[in-house]
UniProtKB/TrEMBL annotation:
The gene is pheA. This is Prephenate dehydratase. It comes from Thermoanaerobacter pseudethanolicus (strain ATCC 33223 / 39E) (Clostridium thermohydrosulfuricum). GO terms for biological process: L-phenylalanine biosynthetic process. It is an enzyme of class 4 (lyase). InterPro entries: ACT-like_dom_sf, ACT_dom, Preph_deHydtase, Preph_deHydtase_CS.
Amino acid sequence: MKIGYLGPKGTFSEEAVIKYTQGVENCEVVEFNTIPEVINCISNSLCEEAVIPIENSIEGSVNIAVDMLINDANGIMIKGEVIIPISHCLISDAPVEFKDVHCILSHQQAIAQCREYISKKFPNAEVKATDSTAQAVLGVKSKPGVVAIGPERAAVIYGMRIIDRNIQDVKENYTRFLILSQKDWVVTGKDKTSIVFSVPNVPGSLYNALGVLANKKINMTKIESRPSRKKLGEYVFWVDIEGHREDEIVKDALEELKGRTDFLKVLGSYPKFK
Ligand SMILES: O=C(O)C(=O)Cc1ccccc1
């Protein structure tokens, strides 16, 4: 089985893939350069599964991933989730003093998770976004004064130096990754279901929709709104609930929700990460 992820080797996404595939045989991992390419590897059948970062405890959602799953990813379902701790290092090719650092490279999520550190230690450095943290680590090769923010593992793989460790603004830092496929997962009894929907622009419509869950005592573990991209001030809601879409109570709730929403898409049911 082929599993797509955001490469090159050494990204946090690769760490998530390693955690996900522990004990699973016959997996071949396939690197892609950007998150959209990783998501598209399912629709164009390059891979059977894909692992993408979806939300971080400091920075919140990875908007590109959320928006593609809401708007573009027809035929893609969520079949699992993995959560990993994230510790960022400051990485360079050769020894460097902080005062000589003039450019910082990293993935936009990593930059955001280290925003206070960057502005305190390097108020004048240029900050450049790369497609992944490992790409940033590759980018410091033979570049005096250029540093990357990324995983220790990437520094080790590419033979770079670690200048500082654990530099994220909140030390306890976690990212949740989703496992995508053409099908979601079977009932396990400890499941979650992700849905997205929009409601009519009338008083109480969101309250009405969420009331279905409240009435059936279905616990909600996440709610997020994203722009509908059709009109300013119009939103689509992403809601995670406990239970599997094939559980009787969830099935009934989804049926009822159809009547109280303009648009409803079930992204998949999958076992909760332990
Ligand atoms: O670039 C990476 O290493 C990724 O996998 C994306 C990312 C970046 C920062 C925190 C978590 C995931």
